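Input (structure):
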């Protein structure tokens, strides 16, 4: 799938029938909340299917969960391996450096400042577009600065004063639960596999 050339999917063919899927960015953010919840795997699956297939639910639960994962991974089944980046934008060395709930004010402000997109007012923004815009945020935005602190490897900082400063920033901006993208995909796989 090429974001520049292809029409982004909003349907999935399951069992020979085409089903509408809600691919709005909010849907995937809610999916993360469902996956982090303490409810049973079966309930996570059913809530996720209800979320992504609001009109009509496919009877094939396995195919439905595969479709949900495909949307969440932006169409790339190998996304977790490609998530490690060296530019500090999203994840570094498999360490999650953002959380949509915890960092919501910073993400909202960055989208408004850089793209003039009010995420609160916009009705629909495809998850894949949102994700591309998120990883493309400029270094001058506060969320990218914060992600840089979270991603910093203190062992690589030679200057003691700078290392201490970065350590303090890591502490200030630490996430309450530091799940990697791979952990989130594993949560989805475990939830969807436990039906």
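Output (sequence):
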């Amino acid at each position: 799938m090429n974001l520049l050339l292809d029409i982004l999917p909003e349907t999935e063919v399951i069992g020979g029938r085409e089903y509408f899927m809600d691919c709005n960015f909010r849907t995937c953010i809610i999916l993360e909340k469902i996956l982090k919840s303490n409810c049973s795997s079966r309930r996570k699956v059913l809530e996720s299917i209800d979320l992504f297939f609001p009109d009509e639910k496919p009877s094939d639960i396995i195919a439905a969960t595969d479709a949900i994962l495909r949307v969440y991974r932006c169409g790339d089944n190998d996304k977790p391996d490609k998530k490690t980046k060296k530019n500090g934008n999203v994840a570094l060395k498999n360490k999650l450096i953002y959380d949509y709930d915890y960092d919501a004010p910073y993400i909202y402000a960055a989208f408004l400042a850089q793209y003039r997109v009010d995420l609160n007012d916009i009705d629909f923004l495809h998850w894949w577009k949102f994700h591309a815009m998120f990883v493309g945020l400029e270094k001058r935005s506060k969320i990218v600065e914060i992600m840089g602190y979270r991603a910093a490897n203190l062992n690589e900082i030679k200057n003691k004063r700078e290392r201490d400063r970065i350590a303090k920033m890591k502490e200030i901006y630490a996430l309450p639960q530091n799940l990697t993208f791979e952990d989130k995909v594993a949560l989805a796989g475990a939830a969807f596999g436990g039906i």
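Notes: DSSP finds nine helices and four strands in the chain. The longest strand covers residues 11-14.
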